[in-house]
Write a structure and sequence with these properties.
Shape: globular
Distance between the termini: 37 Å
Structural class: mainly alpha
Strand content: under 5%
Oligomer: single chain
Largest sheet: none
Radius of gyration: 17 Å
């Protein structure tokens, strides 16, 4: 009987590919789920949820890939949000990933690192969005998702990182 070689690198690449396909499918289905539930699912920040899951369960490189591609994928399949806002969301998610890993290297508390990374990336997002609105590059209100929902999501996602890190003792890299 022939033995099959197992290599952890192959397993992690397969896991990342499967994760990315499920992430794209989830983002693809957000409009349908919103319609089905009669609730704006985008309030729950599905792209950030997928990003945090990527950080927790795949590699740093894959988290950057998710941050870069999910908003673009959403734009390509639905022409929503606008290209400018897609670029803004992409920048916010990329900043979120970078800040998390940067802060994680400086601090030992991954939950706090995630919380601060989300807060800073949101503040930058809203500052740039404000500038875009003022210069008429985009229209609409500055804050479309209620602040209390954003705060709840920040806490939930940061807590998720804490629980995953505690349970698995993972390095999140």
């Amino acid at each position: 009987m022939e033995k099959t070689a197992y290599h952890p690198l192959v397993d992690s690449k397969v896991r990342a590919i499967v994760f990315d396909l499920v992430a794209l499918l989830a983002i693809y289905l957000v409009p349908a789920i919103s319609h089905l539930l009669s609730f704006p699912v985008y309030y729950l920040e599905p792209m950030r949820i997928v990003l945090i899951l990527a950080i927790a369960h795949t590699s740093r490189k894959n988290a950057y890939l998710i941050a870069l591609t999910l908003p673009l994928f959403s734009f390509l399949i639905s022409a929503h949000p606008s290209l400018i806002k897609t670029s803004l969301i992409t920048s916010e998610l990329l900043l979120n990933v970078w800040l998390f890993f940067f802060l994680s290297e400086k601090l030992s508390n991954k939950m706090f690192s995630m919380l601060v990374a989300i807060i800073i990336s949101k503040l930058v997002y809203y500052f740039v969005k404000f500038l875009f609105i003022q210069s008429a590059l985009i229209s609409g209100s500055l804050i479309s998702t209620p602040i209390y929902i954003q705060l709840m999501m920040m806490v939930l996602l940061s807590t998720y990182i804490f629980l995953i890190n505690k349970k698995k003792k993972i390095d999140l890299y």
